[in-house]
Design brief:
Order of helices and strands: HHEHEEEHH
Oligomer: single chain
Number of helices: 5
Mean pLDDT: 86
Low-confidence stretches: none
Shape: rod-shaped
Length: 186
């Protein structure tokens, strides 16, 4: 019987050990489930954060691309607008030298600037205007110059008053642009 008793004790010990193993396995499985849930939550939070970062980066790229495109369109518009302004200025600088309005303009320039400089005065003008300007002044040299219209008044010290068409237009270019832009529409 002692054998039987030893076997019973052995059997009881094995059963207790088996129960202890099952208990430990159950605890480990529960901890693994908890860790899986925690890891899943962390992974989900990371994926959500990453999706938001990607969406922000995409929105920023879209905004940046749109801004660049708008800037390029604006730049092209300004280039074309400047071409129109230059074309208008070029057309405006072509005058009929025998036109009364132009001749009155020349007369006003001569009257305004001849007395402005001291010393011996020379008036430079377009070859088509030399005879007209010569008739406006006595004792003042009138010479031909390579200008579209208007005059350049110069004294013997080299001081000049440039009222040539192109120079006058250049000085008033901002005003010219403003008028052209108003007519073109902004």
């Amino acid at each position: 019987m002692t054998m039987n008793g030893a076997e019973n004790i052995k059997k009881e010990m094995l059963e207790e050990a088996q129960q202890e193993v099952e208990k430990i396995q159950k605890e480990v499985a529960e901890k693994i489930d908890v860790l899986k849930k925690e890891h899943g939550s962390i992974r989900d939070a990371y994926e959500t954060q990453r999706k938001h970062e990607i969406a922000r980066a995409a929105a920023l790229l879209t905004d940046k691309t749109l801004a660049r495109t708008r800037l390029q369109v604006k730049r092209n518009y300004l280039i074309e607008r400047e071409k129109v302004v230059e074309s208008i200025v070029k057309s405006a600088s072509k005058v009929s030298h025998s036109d009364k309005v132009y001749q009155n303009y020349l007369k006003a320039l001569v009257n305004e600037h001849v007395g402005s400089l001291k010393g011996k005065i020379t008036i430079h003008c377009n070859s088509k205007d030399v005879s007209y300007v010569s008739g406006l002044v006595d004792g003042i040299a009138v010479e031909e110059a390579d200008i579209d219209g208007g005059i350049i008044v110069e004294n013997d010290a080299g001081k000049k008053i440039n009222e040539s068409f192109l120079e006058s237009i250049e000085r008033r270019m901002d005003m010219v642009r403003e008028v052209v832009v108003k007519h073109l529409g902004k």
